[in-house]
Records
---
Amino acid sequence: MELLAFGKTGWGDELFYATLMTVAVSITAMLVGFFFALIFTPLKLSKYKTLNLVGNFYTTVIRGVPELLVIYLFFFGGSGAIMYVASIFGYYEYIEINAFITGSMAIGIISGAYSTEVFRGAIQSIDKGQFEAAKVLGINKFGQFYKIIFPQMLRLAIPNLSNVWQITLKDTSLISVTGLVEIMRQSYIAAGSTRDPLFFYSFAAVLYLLLTYVSMKLINKLELRYSRGY
Amino acid sequence: MDFDLMITSFPKLLGATVVTLKLLSASLFFGLFLGLFFAILRLNKNIVINKFAYGYSYIFRGTPLLVQIFIIYFGLGQIEYLRTTFLWVILKEPYWCAIIAFTLNTGAYTSEILRSAFQTIKPGIIEAGKSLGISNKIIFYKIQIPIAIRQSLPAYGNEIILMMKGTSLASTVTLMDLTGVAKYIISTTFKPIEVFIVAGGIYLFMTFIIHNVIKYLEKKYSFQQ
């Protein structure tokens, strides 16, 4: 137990901050994912074949390639890509992006592919009459989406989004390969310096279980809230 | 775009694909039996057995695969007693550690898939079997299992694809699978995009094959209308 003490003698506070880091990366990645889903869901639902192709390409590639490979692409290629963009604007200095941004971008793009599928499924399962009724009532396109389709879609999407959240939360453990100090990386450091990997990795497992458990409880509440009236 | 690199790295990556496929097939094979075993435990009415099976699937589905591999590969070696037993022959090999971790992980997901498949079987079908005087054992093997397999095919297909992606984590315990070799080539040439296209292409090709095989099986074993 003294291994988990707070302060200089133990790893308690380090692991606590690492847990916060995991939560922060997961939330950022989830939001980045929503952003991507916002772009690609309309593409997948569009009536134009070319746009469908772009949307399908994104979800198929990301969901068919290991997360670790995507992370390596971002880790090794991230600063190169940014520097290339910067060089167009006439900036030639070396740019290093920090591990948090690389990590949450990489996980965000992965989580976005799953979110896109969830939103697409949810919109498609809304009764067609709802779209028609909104149109007949003369509500403008913006209102149709935000006041009628979106709230219904959210209710249908939340159970599946909770799965996406779980996947995202667990995927953040892979960012440890880039050196970002989240739960996995901190456990690796602690295990290395105390030569007690069994304890620290098991403790990391407990922390992840705790995070999934707490988030499940919160999402269940949210689900209840959005299914009022059903 | 460095096309030469893409061409020269292709055979290397293809060689590493063999390792990925070996890991995948071994863990799916063992995982299926483990999953079936735990699914049957889940259906047991005894609350202790039931909770035990639930705990197993909860723990392995609630923690990242990376943690599981690390506990098995780095953690178990720490127990002095294990080093003296024959198990150490297996546990000192990263290859077998990876297979054990993948098997336990996919076993947990498979048990959930099979459990829900068993539970969606209409009670009427089992009752019909009983009223025909078929023994419980034969009802289970000849009626419940075939229906459950058919029911769980789509979900199990997803699990195979997830597991194929999961095998990439073997590269974190020094195994040179497809991702491991891809990372090695990237870190020596600093050409991430080219290598990603080739390695990603191989993974996508495997996903495509698995997807279509499952689709074919689904059609083949679909219920007669």
---
Amino acid sequence: MILSDRVKKLRDQSLNAAETLSPERALLITQFYKSDESRGLSAPVMRAKAFEYLLRNKKLYVGEGELIVGERGPAPKETPTYPEISLHSMQDLEILNSREKVSFTVDDDVKSIYEKEIIPFWKGKSNRDRFMDLMTTEWHNAYNAGVFTEFQEQRAPGHTVLGYKMFSSGFLKLKEEISKAVSELDYFTDPQAYDKNEELKAMDIACDAIIMYANRYASELEMLAATEKDTERRGELLKMSAICHKVPANAPESVHEMLQHYWFIHLGVITELNPWDSFNPGRLDQHLYRVYRKQKEEGSLNEKELFDLLGCFWVKFNNHPSPPKMGVTASESSTYTDFCLINLGGVKADGRDGVNEMTYILLDVIREMRLLQPSSMIQISRKNPDRFIHKALDIIRTGFGQPSCFNTEAIVQELLSQGKNIVDARNGGASGCVETGAFGTEAYWLTGYFNLIKALELALNNGFDKRTNTRVGLETGYAHDYKTFEDLLEAFKMQINYLIDIKIRGNNVIMKTFAEWLPVPFLSLLVEDCISSGKDYNSGGARYNTSYIQGVGLGSLTDILTSIRYNIYDNKNFTWDELIKATDIDFKGFEQMQHDLIYDTPKYGNDDDYADQHAVAIFEIYYDAVNGRPDSRGGIHRINMLPTTSHVYFGSVIGATPDGRKAFKPLSEGISPSQGVDKQGPTSVIKSASKIDHLRTGGTLLNQKFAPQFFEDEDSYNCLTALIRSYFALDGHHIQFNVVNADTLRDAQKHPELYRDLIVRVAGYSDYFNDLGEDLQNEIIMRTEHEGA
Amino acid sequence: MKGLIFSVKRYSIHDGPGIRVTFFMKGCPLSCWWCHNPEGISQQPEQVKVAEKVGDEEFIKFRQAGEYYSVDDVLEILEKERPFMAESGGGVTFSGGEPMLQSEFLLEALKACKETGYHTAVDTSGYSLPTNYSAIIPYTDLFLFDIKHLDDDKHEKFTSVSNTLIINNFKMILDSGRDVMVRIPVIPGFNDDDHHLEKIKSFISENRADNLRKICLLPYHRIGSSKYKRMNIPDRMEGVEPPSAERMEELKVFFAGTGIKVKIGG
């Protein structure tokens, strides 16, 4: 596949467009909330009308040469805000405009609009303001100490992926389903009949709204065609206009229609609110295959047209940076990526090999487009051919960080163990970074990262947090009170249970605020069984509802506990007093001790049971604290182990640690070993990482950095394939490769201007190296580089 | 019985097929100028100076090279790697140093590995008594066999031993029917002149057999030089540059003329 001039041009435009803050949505939503139209309505109907208002009044955009139309903002990378979720202050706008990383241009007009229109109306009324007032003192203390983050602070609940149903039916059909559900409401025995009717009414309005939006584009395209001088382009515009008349009202019947259909849905979701992980077409090779085959047999789609369409579609994702984040939210997710993760491969609904011709076509698109967004992954089943993995390795070896590798059999078992039926499980996959979900049927929300190391720090300090000077944990005692290692582990467990209680109590209140005030009737249309149950996505309307709390720092905490056991209890190399004194002053004057902690103490990641047993112990304590706890929308709390960039944030609130780590340095990410401590090569890392029970999680993240020599010939491809398959035979959930050498990265730090296209794998996603903070850049450089020679 | 081993490498992918574990056995009767494992030469454990960094500070430590392993220790390590070997068709490789210098231990280890079902390989200089090779042949699936130089004087000058025994052993092992991969270190100024390369090529062609599976060309590299400094050993290769990638490609084409598969690297 070679990129056409059209796609090259659109791709360049997307890469060169500056991220700017657009006031359009904030203004429209404010106008609507101020208007009479918004009053006296139930929450779902009000939100549906707000959605309709946005789609009726937002600016249309048709780029030169585009084949797929629609932008969230007035133009590519012009990014809206969501004041009903979280309001940016004037100071926030200054920071966004001037910060070094992940910045957004905010011009004076926008600032003035914010000052005069947006802030006066929303101050104290955003959902963030509302629920922060509802949180307890304990919650605030823990949050401020960096025990956990709150995912719904600046973004709406998301983490949902489209299933096949929405690729095979249009919104007119959904309207019929809604009407049927309304007619079946039972006002005699169902006390919620009225609420359901309001929700269904709202969904119906949302159907009309998205169809209206597509028709606006159809008319616009027709108008453009009328004045277009180029005959070929005029033909394209008319064809696109006809497509926008047809979808998403009706089911799409060609690849072009499917991509435009999906894109309208995507825009609907990210215009309604700003859910985490934007939105996601999921198993794209599966979805497109049937229609592609049909068109190929008819001869109605040639290869050039196909790649042009897919190229245009890819650019659309890249045009949409994640909405501007501030404070802790910006620290935990410091990236423009909005985590749309295309799934390829895996198995079909009937359990058979899911790799098809479209899988290979999409891998070509990923390789040639080489864009930050959308992100991509391959689901690897035992049933998939090696050729599929090799083709993915061809892309991974270029150091692009995509696609990442997932274990289909693990995903299916994880979903089954959570109670999903086998078909829903096979239709599932991973989204965001590594999160397992049943596509089209599940609302699996991430609720925040949890700092495992902070819980231990509190256990060593009688519950007191030195940095914020507050009591945050339980008074379980001080380090030297613990006569045995088991005593310490018990205190750690008590802290975890106590802090998780605080987090879950908060979650259950915050979820309610979304259910009560911010229902999402449009998103609800897309996830089964919201229509048939008459319940909103934000109120537990989906077939499956899961709330995750993401554990962070497993590798670091394993090394810390291992060091304590090894050096204090088992070998008595140091006393508690010595160790605490050294860590309190960040090892200044204790470099010899620090050396011994780093070089002469067992570490996680080396297939050494002495160290790895602590990973298992931490995992079980954390799992027991969270798993199975009910949430307030009828779902269940579960764990997964991923960090995005929160391991840097969490590290910044933790002093020096007994594994020899200096104060405020990043923690380990995902379930990967601490940076640079894995000395036995990738098989040992894999062995260590597979000692925890992945199948009881909703995803784990293992990052391995490889030098390019590991990819030099067919033999090394076969070995890498075997390495991945072995990890998956051991029930590993996910592994990703960072292929790059440290010298290149150091040079990139010195001369960022020469490396604008350098993409690295961070932790569950890829990012431009230049956009990473210096600490994260250093961490990636430090991560063990395994020599191929 | 125990064997002296100075390094164990997991995810070893250049010492035979698949993902392997390579045991580097300590002690070598040769003394090659370009040796990149000088810590593998002595038959005794020794202390090797290493610099370990903590922030900007450097700690000079002496770390022991060489630990004694029982056959059970070897099996225990292999058991850890079983999933990878099974998936990749890998196994175990005994390298060195010269593993044949500890032939009794090697024989026991190979027997035990075969019994457990692992694919076995021995990476050897060929410099050992023929009876030692006959003893291990039944338990060795693959020999990685070094051919360094065919001119005896030169061989003796740069490795300190004659090549007569080596060449005889090579033929004997080939005759046994076991798989063999020939490894030729490409050392600029020692064995890479046209005349000698022709000689090796015809030697291999003469000995061509179905079980002669591959020719591996190992380009000289400078990894050893930092070790020489650390170990206070004079570096006899100072100033010698590794062969270029283009040169290696040329040689690959050249040796492909034997009709045997050629690979750059292990």
